[in-house]
């Protein structure tokens, strides 16, 4: 359980992140994947991460301090159709700089919408993470949106793709912010990561 979650800072420049004096866990995914909802579920703070931020807004790296012990980082989403090429390039530059240079980063949750068939943009992003040695895990979101068998089918299809890419299946979680599913599993996994 998380007892305390406080906003620390937002910025567009990864070099201005807080001093790397604590373990850090980041969350990223396609716009609308359910990232804010998942962060709010995990921390137990409604609206800690704002749900459904509009794509026109400045894209920020948001740091939160959790239990005075670790940083939770909300990264800007990718894959919004309406985003200009220029903004996309800025996103790529900022995110790749953050993910490859942040020395205290010990885990990145890449969120995948469990309603969808495997999406190229997600697979490409995960492939890039693998190439760059970014320590990622996968969290499927919105598992309550369809039957359990449909969720299982979509999750399996995605994992099969990952197995094709990586030769094995990375750690993954199936979650629902609506039903609070997967919360304990994700939090105990994070707890282990940040105490290493
Ligand atoms: P973000 O853009 O990735 O931060 O996504 P949001 O958290 O804002 O969620 C996008 C939309 O999906 C919102 O309308 C949420 O209410 C909805 N949503 C997010 N997670 C869940 C979930 O687990 N179950 C259901 N049923 N809806 C969800």
Automatic annotation (TrEMBL):
It comes from the Bacteria. NCBIfam families: GTPase_YsxC, small_GTP. HAMAP family: GTPase_EngB. Belongs to the TRAFAC class TrmE-Era-EngA-EngB-Septin-like GTPase superfamily. EngB GTPase family. It holds the Pfam family MMR_HSR1. The keyword Nucleotide-binding applies. This is Probable GTP-binding protein EngB. Transmembrane segments: none annotated. It comes from Algoriphagus jejuensis. Residues 21-196 form the EngB-type G domain. Its cofactor is Mg(2+). Necessary for normal cell division and for the maintenance of normal septation. The gene is yihA. Keywords: Cell cycle, Cell division, GTP-binding, Magnesium, Metal-binding, Nucleotide-binding, Septation.
